[in-house]
Amino acid sequence: MTLSATPTPGNLLVSPKDHTLIMIDFQSQMAFATKSIDAVLLRNNAALVANAAVGFGVSTILTTVAEKTFSGPMFAEITEAFPGQKLLDRTSMNTWEDAAVIDEVNRIGKKRLVFCGLWTSVCIVGPTLSALDQGFEVYVIADACGDVSDEAHERAMDRMVQAGVRPMTSLQYMLELQRDWARTETYDMTTGIAKKFGGSYGLGIIYAKSMFGASEGH
Hints:
Number of strands: 6
Shape: globular
CATH class of the largest domain: Alpha Beta
Largest sheet: 6 strands, parallel
Oligomer: single chain
Strand order of the largest sheet: 3-2-1-4-5-6
Number of helices: 10
CATH topology of the largest domain: Rossmann fold
CATH superfamily of the largest domain: Isochorismatase-like
Order of helices and strands: EHHEHHEHEHEHEHHH
Strand content: 15-25%
Structural class: alpha/beta
Number of domains: 2
């Protein structure tokens, strides 16, 4: 049998309309004990993901745990990207055991789910393994997650990947949604987010545009 390649994306790549993004417990109390990633970088990556989701029109669920009584508000970088969106507050550590969250997952109705949040070993492992068990396709944005130690984060990622979760990073997530610089309708938005939250990659874009008027779409 001869294989014939075609210039089309693989089915395992995420696209703006094929998944639901679930951002979990990006809250002060959870961040205080997070040691596997610097707090500034964590907030930056969460902001990148949130702004990319808004810009590409991704269906998104925002959820917190004990917001008023213990864990505090969700990061402003996220809520400012989603003005007016309801936060689903829970008592359960496993988001998948919260009826309101599951109602929203079912209302949106997408089989592919992308997760990020705090902590990796508890609030991400729980819903990802539960969703896998119920037949969903599951991705985790690893650098928009964090835990109480490197060991805790890494073992949690290992456990999820061994179970079938597909790991990715925050910048990878946004660039996978864009995928082609010739898509002019989202070009300025994508490069704008990269310049603000994309670290040295964003600096490179600023430099190239300022010095040479460069454009990736040409």
